[in-house]
Amino acid sequence: MSYDPQPEASHYVAGGYIEDTGGAPLEVVYPFTGARIARLHCATDRVIELALASALEAQEVWAAMSGTERGRVLRRAADIMRGRNRELSELETRDTGKPLQETLVADATSGADALEYFGGLAATLTGEHIPLGTDWAYTMREPLGLCVGIGAWNYPTQIACWKAAPALACGNAMVFKPSEETPLSALKVAEILTEAGAPPGLFNVVQGGGDVGAALVADARVAKVSLTGSVPTGRRVYAAAAERIKHVTMELGGKSPLLVFDDADVEDAVGGAILGNFYSSGQVCSNGTRVFVQRGLRERFLRRLSERLEAGVVMGDPLDEATNIGPLVSAAQRDKVMGYIRQGAREGARLIHGGTAGPGPGFFVAPTVFADVTDDMVIAREEIFGPVMAVLDFDTEEEAVARANATPFGLSAGVFTRDIARAHRVIGRLHAGSCFINSYNDAPVEVPFGGVKASGVGRENAKAAIEHYSQLKSVYVRMGAVEAPF
Ligand SMILES: NC(=O)C1=CN([C@@H]2O[C@H](COP(=O)(O)OP(=O)(O)OC[C@H]3O[C@@H](n4cnc5c(N)ncnc54)[C@H](O)[C@@H]3O)[C@@H](O)[C@H]2O)C=CC1
What we know:
Bound molecules: 1,4-dihydronicotinamide adenine dinucleotide
GO molecular function: betaine-aldehyde dehydrogenase (NAD+) activity; metal ion binding
Enzyme class: oxidoreductase
CATH architecture of the largest domain: 3-Layer(aba) Sandwich
Pfam family, one: Aldedh
GO biological process, one term: glycine betaine biosynthetic process from choline
CATH class of the largest domain: Alpha Beta
EC number: 1.2.1.8
Oligomer: single chain
């Protein structure tokens, strides 16, 4: 590591770092060693007020610029971010514990994609002309105003950019609160936007936990709240936003099904299940953690899965690029995941691989596979958010679809089969927002991402996100006399 992860100050407001040591201390721990790497302070009321006020001011300036000018700033930010990818990836690895092998390709790069994509769209956000005989109407696509973004700890840079890029492209300003577990990289996103030419205050970062998030959501000047987090938090934030009829985007948790039929390519299906359960040590909301395998393929699937885990897992120092499994974000998350593993064993699931914590002081959990899991087991019902795969058996397509849908969540779903008609038929019947055929967990910026049912409201990425950061104004234009009844 070539630099100190300790930022200049805790918050980024009005185009620069600010500190208020009156806020509760916020310790940042490297999940590989458990050692403190930075010390920040939670935002005080004063910091929150400064952030909101400066965002309101910046928004007016920003919205008055042309889409082309706004887009140029975002695309410049994308280039700066790509140029600093290694440094940003190392910081992300320190903050989250995710292997550098991953952060080099999935965090700042994904953030840069969002800035580039929405930078490109900014100039195209127009209304329409509606002819009505001699009269006519037109629509204008307007920004919402001041948006609040609240992040989870698994993809701090990506989450900040997936929210900021469409918000700013539409002419909004944002106050972003990262997860208190991973507060560092959003500050870099703010620095980069300033360097790219964003007006001071356009994108502010304030630190803190749920209370700081709640204060932002409650503020009457905030027009929209976009949260990435768990379903219980989503429920609270959605309710608070409803008090003032605010717009919301809710990217929440899941317990997604991955259906593997007898005719699937077993290597691809195993690969999909690995990507959909163990990437980022399983701390991915869209993970396909209920792997339904048709009975005829089950033993081969489990054998190849075990062999590939046995031969392929490199658990260790996340800054070593050979490492492909890092620690979980915190000791608390490790303990929670280990609790689920014990629960799975108690409920009678068959442990095929892993099941242990460690090694060392880091918050590791070995990639874990349970077979013979049944729908009623807790490990098949609750989001674990760790490297725990539940393999369930099924006989018929009808049965698999019904069981896959029997969950309050609906974020993602996948199907592995060589039968193209079945693939589309099954996907058509699954209740999920982000689906995959013979693949799992791809999330390019061009494709809408988000859930149905308890997994969320709204979509991130793609043109769909524009709908969630802008509103239409309709203007009726009468060309003739007004004929009033009296
Ligand atoms: N659908 C998606 O796109 C994604 C969803 N997630 C979900 O996030 C969860 C894991 O992340 P965590 O950080 O543990 O989630 P969390 O729900 O505990 O916290 C999320 C964020 O909300 C804030 N918060 C908590 N209470 C609040 C309140 N009352 N008002 C305003 N803000 C509040 C937290 O400080 C944090 O920044 C998992 O359930 C996962 O599935 C994670 C990544 C992506």
